[in-house]
Rab9 effector protein with kelch motifs-like (Sinocyclocheilus grahami), 529 residues
Amino acid sequence: MRGLCSSSFISHNRREGWQSSIKIQPSVQLMVLFARGDWGKRDSVSVELADERNIPINMGKLTPFNKCLSWESGEDGVWSSGATLTVKLIGGTTELLDPGLTLSQMECTPECIHAVPALRECPGKRKRSQGEEEEEVNEGRGKENICPNASEKVTPQRRSKNNHHGGQTRLFSQKEEHTATSSSQSHKAKGKQAKTPSQTAPLDKPSGRWGQTLCPIDPQTAILIGGQGARMQFCKDPIWKLCTEDLSWVPAETLAEGPTPEARIGHTATYDPESKRIFVFGGSKHKKWFNDVHILDTQTWRWTLVEAQGKVPPLAYHSCSMFRGELFVFGGVFPRPHPEPDGCSDSIYIFNPEMAIWYQPIVNGEKPAPRSGHSACVMQGRIFVFGGWDTPVCFNDMFVLDLGLMEFSVVKASGTAPSPRSWHGCAVLSDCSFLIHGGYNGNNALSDAFVFNTDTSCWSSLAFPQLNSVPRAGHSIITMPTTCKQGCTDEQEELPESAPQTLLVFGGGDNEGSFFSDLFTMPVEELRD
């Protein structure tokens, strides 16, 4: 190692809003900022890296759940003339901090070769009964049913009673393996250490990713949360704010106070228009699984971690629907400790925010088979569940849950139905129609699009170059009111249901290992015609 410099950011000033800065020398190639010890009442630590002209290069945030940030010269910004790292304490005071605690290290790249870690493989998995699920309610770690992490492709097929699950499939496999190999060779050639698992975020838009959520909160704003990018690295820029008036992005992780959710994939983010809050539930991160509930109050811009009562297993790639102030969670993948693989759920869990409690309803009728990566949308007091998979089977069936009777039934549809798929995009287009786009069929990402009419129970295929030109899976699709370029304010009244709508598509991955950061739009009216 060519050199090591360590500095303490602790000040003896005990008032709130403590802030300190440190100069970064031009010779520094890698910087790592981390926190350790008890956080006490402190919420987070905001961090900003600025160049010699005091222009921000990058920004981030340390929380009790995200305790490390890193920057590398040439990738995260150029500080050939030096830079300044500013750290600001948010919430609480410094009086409980250990004066000897080191919160920052600046480290030169070692003169040794570190190979890029090999991509993980996941074994097959089996289904489990509801009783087995309940035994695992508090188990938070296990094998992750995440498509990019598996090693081989499996053709979807219906299995007989004695046919066990096959190996996991792998999305984005060919180019990703090539990228990892090229990256390893590049690091060997340069003699530099492989970067820690974090990603560089352009300042003007989110980095490419899949498995994120995009949640509208008002006619002009949507919130992007989480996701995973290249080489299975979780996004370093997990939270963004989208302004649909000019389609601009703003980094939002440091905008809100309180404990932000840990980086994750396969979670859900559901907005309640009555309380104006976003509910983030579940998801996974490598071998760590979540059953926590984080709430973002969009009026005060503060995160809250709910101490919920009742039982709900850690779940990922589930669906979550808001109905009359409660969250209805269906399906998803849940973990089982080694050596058993993970399995899919066919249960419904309901979260009541007012009581902060989970409970399971009595559900009648013909229930869907266990699955994950499916879609669910609420329309006219019913939840329509489409597709998903339970390895190696992909589904294209559809069920409807009557929320008044709490009864499932099979939807008998006519027309051209979508082929079996999971991780597809789904968006409500009108009171009686919703869109299904893209997804993953067990071998490839898809690009086709379909509209289902709930009044006629009929499928219709769509042919639009914008939708059909690029295969996508794990992407986000939402509809929002078409905003005017002038006269729009935060206090704007709710628009009528007949107002023009715009379809927005963001992110996802394709068959070549690419992860998209683009955002494209099209009028919903074109899809209805």
